[in-house]
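Justification of resources, computational component.

The compute hours requested in this renewal are based largely on the per-chain cost of generating structure records like the one below. Each record pairs the submitted sequence with a full C-alpha cell output. That output is archived, and it is also reused by downstream analysis tasks.
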Amino acid sequence: MSEENSVEALLEEARLNASIPPPAERQRLREAANLSRAQVAAAVGVGRTTVANWETGHSDPTPPGRLPYLKLLKGLAEICPAAPAPAATPDPTPEHTADPAPVPPAFAAAPQTLRGSDGHAIEGDPGPCVRCGIETTYQSTDGRPLHSGALCQPASPAAAPHTTGTAPSTPAAAPAAPAPASPTPAPLPNRPERRARSAARAQADTTLLISRAVHEEAERAGGDEEAALKALIKRAIPDVMHLFNETRATGRYDYTAYPALPDILKKPSKKDPDQIWEARPKFHHPGYSLRAPGDIKVTALDVNAAYLSALKCWLPIGKLEHSTGTDGVEPKRSGVHLITPAPWTHPHLPDPIGDRDEPGALWITNSTLRLLQRLAGPKYGLTDAPVIHESWTSGATENFLDALRKLLSAARDEAIENQDTLTLEYVKAMYSKFISTMGESIHNREMARPDWMHIIHSQAYANLWGKAYKAHQAGLDVVAMMGTDELHVTGDWRKVFPEGRGVAQMKIKHGDAKATGEYSVGTVGR
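The structure output for this chain reads:
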C-alpha cells in the first residue's frame, strides 16, 4: 500500500470514528434495514454476541471488525435516515371529542407479522414485542419484534391501541390541555428479569426448532416413519450442537471447548480407553440366584432418560489445573481425581465405586468423588472418606447444561403426551449422541471435553446408586443394579417410585435384558 493510500485509509477510519452513532441508533439502523444480528456479524467478521454488545453499549467496536462495521453503519444511515420528530398536533376542540385519542407510535402503523413465501412467520433477533412487550424472535413487516399470533395483548392500557375513539371529558371551564407528550417508554427490565425472559424465549424458540426438524424430515420421507427417523438420527449431532449453542447464548459462563488435556484423559490409541474409571455398576445381590426360581418376586425397573437427568452435574468450565492432596477439591471445582477408596463393607448394597477387577488407586470423576464424600458423611456413615492423591480440576458450575436439559426434557414430555414416537426417538438420539461425542470424536468437531463425558456418565451411575439406596431404605431388597438405568428390586416398588415414562418416574423394564419385567428367584444363604 502506498503512503498516500495509507493516509487516506487512516483518515477515512478517523472520519467514521468521529461520526459513529450511539448504541441505540446502531440497533435502529440495523432493524430499519431488516437485517439480523447474525447477518451483520457474518458481514463484518465477528460473532452475533459481539454485535449485540455493540448495540447495547456493553462494548465499543474494536478491530478487526470495527472498520467494516463503521462502513456498514454509514451506508445504513444514508439508506435509513432517522425520522424527523413528529409535529405537535393541536388539542381537540369540544366538537371533535369523538375523534380517536392519540395513538402511541408503536401501534400507529398497526404492524403486521412478516411472512415468507410459504406463509410462515419469519424470525430474526429477539426483542420486546411492540404489542405486549414480551420478548419474541418474530418480526413485523417494518423489522420490529412482533409476535406471529393475534393473542398477545398490550402490556398496559397506556400502551394499548385505542379502539373506541372517545376522549376523556373535561369541565367546560378548564383550560385547554397541553399537547399530549410522547409516551413514556416502559422501564427496562433488570438483569435477572432479562435473563428469565431470555431463558423462556430460548426454550420456546429452540423447542420450535425440534418440531420443525421433525416436520421437515417427515415431509421429505413422504410418510415413511422409518426413513424419517433415520434422517433425524443422522442429523442429531449437528442439531443438538445448534441447540446447545442457542441455549448458551444467554449463559453467564464462557467455557473452554478445546482445553489442553492431561495424559490421563487422552486415549493411547483409537481402541484403547483413557485412564478414567466411571464407576459403572454390575451388581448382583449375593443372597439371590437368578438361576433358581422360587417364591420371591423381583421386578426389573428401568430409569427413564438416565443420561438426560445426568446433564445436571458439576462440570469444569475452564482448562484443568493440576493439584496434589486435597488442594483442588472444593465445592465449586470439578474434574478428575486420583484416589484410593475405602473398603466397601455392605454386600447387600452396590459398591458406589462400581465393580473393579484390580484394587488400589484409580482415577475417578468429580461425580463419583462427591458420592463417596456424601456416603462418608454423617447423614449416611456407610464408608470412610477416600484418600485423594492428586487432581485435575477447574472452576465449575452445576447449571452449565441445565437449559439444554430442560429443553430436551420438555420436548420429550410433550412427545410422550402426544404419542409422537418420531420426536421421542429424535430427542433421545440428540442427548445420547451429544454426550457420547463431546470427547474425542470425529463426529463432533465443536468441542473436545472427555472430562465432561466421563463426569456425565458417572453422574448417571451415581443417580442410579441413589435410587438403589432409596429402595433399600424403604425395605426393598436390591437384587441387581446394572448399567445406567437397570434396577431389580423385591417388594412393592410403586410405594417408593412413581410409575410412568417421565424423567422423574420409573417403569418396568421389558425386552432388552436377560431378566426383564417381573420374575421369581430363590435365595442362597440369606
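The two ends are 89 Å apart (CA to CA). DSSP finds 14 helices and 15 strands in the chain.
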